[in-house]
Amino acid sequence: QCPGIEPLCLDLADWDATEAAVGAAGPFELLVNNAAVAMLQPFLQVTREAVERSFDVNFQAVLHVSQIVARQMIAQGLPGAIVNVSSQASQRALRDHAVYCSTKSALDMLSKVMAMELGPHKIRVNTVNPTVVMTDMGRINWSDPQKSAAMINRIPLGKFAEVDDVVNSILFLLSDKSAMTTGSSLMVDGGFLVS
């Protein structure tokens, strides 16, 4: 559907492989960091493996890929935009989400620092913060009707997000229609955070 897009399949936790693959793929004008894992465990049962894997993918990979791409953007001398896919979980505690909530909170703050430091280079950085999205991962973690009903009851619009809800928000933040928006978090949560 998009002939100009070439997918790269790699383990983002492998910094050397990521550096080589992403570095060779440029130049870039836009970047969306969307890779994530959700290893849900009660706080008292959180494992070291869950912490390391979650921070490797949800935080460190975003930092590293963004560094590679931003350096290329700066070298080109052209404006750019980066959107990091965060979560409503960065702003609200959720049961069994201690690690996931923490990685997404860290991602929000990283994005603000990136916006501050990359702004002088005309690179905008924002996050989208969706509620549960009906992806494969969303369906796995929210397939229990009792668990999902409790969450949906807290969403004023009464439903989880669809992929297009998030995609359209990302497209807005990448576009010139948001030319004065940087360092912001766009909530795509059906009102969850106001309830």
**What is the string of SSEs from the N terminus onward?**
HEHEHEHHHE
Q: What count of helical segments does DSSP give?
A: 6
Number of strands: 4
The domain count comes to: 1
Question: Which structural class matches the secondary elements?
Answer: alpha/beta
C-alpha Rg (nearest Å): 17 Å
CATH topology: Rossmann fold
- The first-to-last residue Cα distance is 39 Å
For the largest beta-sheet, the strand count, sense and barrel status come to:
4 strands, parallel
Give the rounded overall mean pLDDT. Answer: 94
Low-confidence stretches: none
Subunit structure: Homotetramer.
InterPro entries: L-xylulose/Carbonyl_redctase, NAD(P)-bd_dom_sf, Sc_DH/Rdtase_CS, SDR_fam
Protein name: DER reductase
Keywords: NADP, Oxidoreductase
Summarize the structure.
The protein has 6 helices and 4 strands.
Helix-strand blueprint:
Blueprint (H helix, E strand, L loop, with lengths): L14 H11 L4 E4 L14 H29 L3 E6 L12 H21 L4 E8 L5 H6 L3 H8 L10 H12 L10 E4 L7
Parallel strand pairs: 1-2, 2-3, 3-4
Helix pairs in contact: 1-2, 2-3
Task: State the main characteristics.
Rossmann fold, 11% strand, 4-stranded parallel β-sheet, 6 helices, 45% helix, 195 residues, alpha/beta
How would you portray this structure in words?
With 195 residues, this protein is an alpha/beta fold. It has one domain: Rossmann fold. Helix content is 45%, strand content 11%. The chain contains six helices and four strands, in the order αβαβαβαααβ. Strands 1-2-3-4 form a four-stranded parallel β-sheet, with helices on both faces. α1 (15-25) packs parallel to α2 (48-76) and α2 (48-76) packs parallel to α3. The longest helix has 29 residues, at 48-76. It starts with 14 loop residues before the first helix and ends in a 7-residue tail after the last strand. 32% of the residues are buried.
